[in-house]
Amino acid sequence: MANSRASAHLLDVTRTVSRAHWQPTGIDRIERAYIARLIYDPAPLFGLVRTKLGYLLLDDSGCQSLLEHCETQIWQDADLLSRLLRRSDADRARTETGLRRIALDRATPARLTAMLKRHLPRGTAYLNTGQTQFNDRIVHALKACEDVRISVYLHDTIPLDFPEVQTNASRLRFKQFFGRTDRHADLVLCNSEHTRSRVLYHADHLKDDQVHVVMPGVPDIKLGTAPNGPWSGEAYVMAIGTIEPRKNIGFLLDLWDTFSGPDDPHLVICGRRGWMSEDVFARLDRHPPNVHELSGLPDSAMWALLKDSCGLLFPSKAEGFGYPAIEAIRLQVPVICTPLPVFREVLGNSAIYADESDRYLWRSKVEQLTQVRRGQSGEQYSVGSCLVPTWQEHFNLLFTLL
């Protein structure tokens, strides 16, 4: 097992804190994997948390407690301060209450630099994996510390490449984040060659040798109990992910409008409702035949449901990495997806590619997959494998770069 060459690690864990009570997205999984691995590295780990009042600094044990809270919600009460500051987010109020009690140190924004100087040894590696809170104040504080190396993980450049599928606020937020990364990062990590090429395309200051592909790992998939529903015992396919424009769920609803028979396949959409998709939400609220919407499933239950399905449908307009497709292939579940460059790179020949414009091909492939499940005549699909590293392989490579 390789270890980091840095004298210490400072990991921004604000995203994990803000989403401790949610089912993790792909980026959430990556940040949590970093916490879990860096806790056990010989170099000490510090976790930086932005709160309403300023900043908290966690040590290794504090970061471990944060991970435990993400899994089992160990902090169940919120103090008066958290209740006042987080009136609309009781879960985050409880999380921040627990963290304040165990924090190594805390500081107002004006005292951030002093706090970091008190604790960070020379040669610390700063890591931002959550694409959040990399602001001018953070940059100034890091550069005031001795020999700190700034590393940022960029998961995609979708807000720059496809602004039409993002809100105005998210576009502006990412543009500012990317600009600071371009100007101040010593090292940029990317999840694919496709993302790396887009980062270099948009960057004005980053050099080629500063931007590296360090593909994320895939965790062990632990199957739980699949939820029961109208799809149980029937042929069904799944779509997984937040319901938002780039996931193209409206395309699948259009496709299911072409199915009209009682024996047609079921579509199970697994993911919370996101943004800019009011028309899709309205259609889902009308409960189309054989279409089912599930939200808030634990990963183990979602994976069990996926394992029992006929296939995963992934008609995305843009993706950073596509964890659900990789997890499906790990479970030997067929994947039908759009021919995005990142899918071609990561999934290779393991997926069935179909352009969004070819609705007939999508329908025929869905029918073939469900016929196989029913034992009817149909093309048999052999699901291959994709070249995605383990998390240990990921960190072995990362530690050669820090």
UniProtKB/TrEMBL annotation:
Highest taxon, organism lineage: Bacteria
Glycosyl transferase family domain mapped to chain residues: 233-350
MF terms in GO: glycosyltransferase activity
UniProt keyword Glycoprotein, yes or no: no
Alphabetical GO biological process terms: lipopolysaccharide biosynthetic process
Record's keyword terms, sorted: Transferase
Pfam families: Glycos_transf_1
InterPro entries: Glyco_trans_1
Keyword Iron-sulfur assigned: no
Protein name per its UniProtKB record: Glycosyl transferase family 1 domain-containing protein
Upper classification of the organism: Bacteria, Pseudomonadati, Pseudomonadota, Alphaproteobacteria, Rhodobacterales
